[in-house]
Amino acid sequence: MISTTGFPGRHSVALLVLLTHAAWAGAQTAEPGTRPGPAGRLVSLSAATLAAGEAAQGPPAGPAQPGPAAIRLSLHDAIERGLAHSLAALLSEQRTRQAEAGRWTALGGLLPNVSATLMGATEKINLEAYGFPVAPGESPLIGPFNISDRRLAVEQTLFSWSAIEAARSGSARLSAAEYAHKDVREQIVVAVTGGYLQLIATRARIQAAHALLDTALALEQRAMALKEAGVAAGVETVRAQVQTAQERQRVLVFENEFEKQKLQFARAIGLPLDQAIELTESFPYASLDTKSPADAIAQALATRPDYKAAAESLRAAELSRAAAIGSMLPSVALAADVGMIGQSWGSALKTYSVVIAVHVPVFQAGHERARIIGADATLQQERAQLTDLKARIEYDVRAALLDVGSSGQRVEVALRGFDLAKLQLTQAQDRFSAGAATHVEVIQAQDAVATAAENLIASRFANSLSKGALARALGVAESSAERFLGGQQ
Known about the structure:
- The protein has 489 residues and is of the alpha+beta class.
- It has a domain at 12-70 and 181-289 and 397-485: Outer membrane efflux proteins (OEP) (Up-down Bundle).
- It is 62% helix and 14% strand.
- The chain has helices at 12-27, 47-51, 75-85, 87-107, 161-228, 234-269, 293-303, 305-326, 367-433, 439-474, 477-485; strands at residues 34-36, 42-44, 71-73, 113-126, 141-159, 277-279, 331-342, 349-359.
- The chain has a four-stranded antiparallel beta sheet with strand order 4-5-7-8. A two-stranded antiparallel sheet has the order 1-2.
- A hairpin with a 5-residue loop joins strand 1 (34-36) and strand 2 (42-44).
- Helix 5 runs antiparallel to helix 8 (305-326).
- The protein is elongated and about 145 Å long.
- Residues 1-46 and 54-64 have low confidence and may be disordered.
């Protein structure tokens, strides 16, 4: 039974195409490597078209085939749409803006605060309330009188180690957020690429299923003709009818799966769910020259945005701890104002004040100590996470390199197995046509071709996916994923 979920294990599609072609080739006078269409025409098939996810000149993919209103979508277009419309990218962008706001908040402790005041007032005061004695019999009240004041005030921190380190920590956190945003984009590229490849695989499965159904119908007609001629038993017709019914079921399952996958993919890249999509690309196998594990790991540590984000987060934690310690050190601040004050705007006189203050923390009831302990705990967490991430990056790179090499070898083995399975099917069909074998032997040969073709497609698509995983492991998915799929770094 062929799985209808997951990727790349459902490449039975194209495999089925080949099995179909070979199945009918022996029963007719056609050359090996061709298969009949519904009207008896022969369609050339090859391992290349099979692996590319396309049935060359084959039948349409049924109701899943896009109409005139469909948009042609390349992998590059899909990636651009995914980056522009992905919810993860939008949320990550806003987190970067929040980090920028935090940086400006931290800088506020170092930047000057300037304010301007324009005031006009009418007052009546009680001198005794301010401690001024009043002669007996006289009223302590003065006024009403006017006050007009226009003033410019400045406050500036001249030195605060805590504020300096807090500002540097805010800048580091902004850098970490920017690198984290780049990492989210890398993940989106890998996800969109995987979804696009999945659609290619399912499209090929549909085309192969239609080809198998065509072959099953032709074999059913031939079995009925042989029965009427008294050459074959009735059970051969029943077996052919059962095979035809199974192939119809396969077509329905694959077409439904393809439509659901398109809905998921459209939602992922921000397309309307009723928008028809036509895939413009396929990915034939291309070997990829890889670097040594040591060189690849060094490149990953130098380019991976998630590693850079973790390093910046560690630096921000170190600076936050320094800021917490700095809060226990003296700080110096300046406050100054200058303005015109009087009973009216015309009679106002110039006044000013300049104050320099030194703040020396003496005892703050454990508040600053608690702040230092919390900052130190955060610092240790960031160090542990960076160490773990470094080890995970090394694992990702080594695993991706192994997958690329292994899947490439699987392709070579699958190609050989596919050629042998086609030869077996051709011989089985010749024997059936000559009356030396039953339909059971042909079905077994068809199953062998189906298995070999699925192995071929699975290995080629697994190779493509492993290249995308390697690009992600190296931190170059957004810039180089498409080149990796084509066999170039």
